[in-house]
Write a structure and sequence with these properties.
about 325 residues; alpha/beta; Rossmann fold; 2 domains; five-stranded parallel β-sheet; 12 strands
Length: about 325
Amino acid sequence: MLRLIRVVLLALLAAPLGAEAQPPAKMSRIGLLGGTSPEVSPFWGRFFQRLRELGYVEGQNIAFEGRYYGDRVEQLPGFAAELVRLQVDVIVAAAAPAPEAAKQATATIPIVMANHADPVGSGLVAGIARPGGNVTGLSLPGVALRLKQLQLLKEILPGLSRVAFLRNPSIPLDVRELETAARSLLIRVQVVEARTPSEFRSAFAAATKERAGALIVLAGSSFFAHRARLAELAAQSRLPTVYVLREHVDAGGFMTYGVDIRENFRRAAGYVDRILKGTRPGDLPIEQPTKFELAINLKAAKALGLTIPPSVLARADRFVE
């Protein structure tokens, strides 16, 4: 009995020593690079939530370094260089042109895109199935998505012959592919540009001057952050306007057709997890969304004097009244 008590006491004394001898969990540092901060964007929250589900706790085994350029895209190269100097383990670059800036800053730190319209055409990766290099993540079906937006507009406005596309010139755009897609619907393309909200009004004026019958707003952090202003200008210009993200119809925009970017950010966390566990980014295939969402603001349609065909209404996933 005395011997048994001695063994138990030794075991109890040894337990804390063994626990202290365990190496602490590695603190991984993740760089966040994009146009909007988590305080402004509703998307980053899904990214953080998924990381928590995967066992990451901020301050215990993971830390974040965020750099967000807002309307000042010229800050982007400097922000990317800062994250490289901080020697983060992974850079999560939300959308173009953030992945491009990150890749220019480093060829070794893994980069995860949350959404990019053309990662192959822009030279970010060698291919979808095997990206190679240090960039992977999620992409958007750029031309295919825009063609579908044009088809929806053509159903609503059968006589439509000219559509303006609002873009941020800092974000790559293959205009020739866009024109080819539109030509199949007998639509001519006009590209108008705005880097900051101060240029929005002149972009709408350029579209109406050339008699565009509708406008499609391409992805861009400035466009998202100032979506209420875009909706206001579209109403003033009486231009039926289509957007990529459903939040635009909540802000008064007419129609959106696109993907759930929240889900992209959620899945980006899975890429980060696999990279931190040792998978090379170049071996992780780039994911492309398969589910798309159509949302229509019926109040905005009525203000524009539009009658939405039953065929379009039947395909809508969401209405705002």
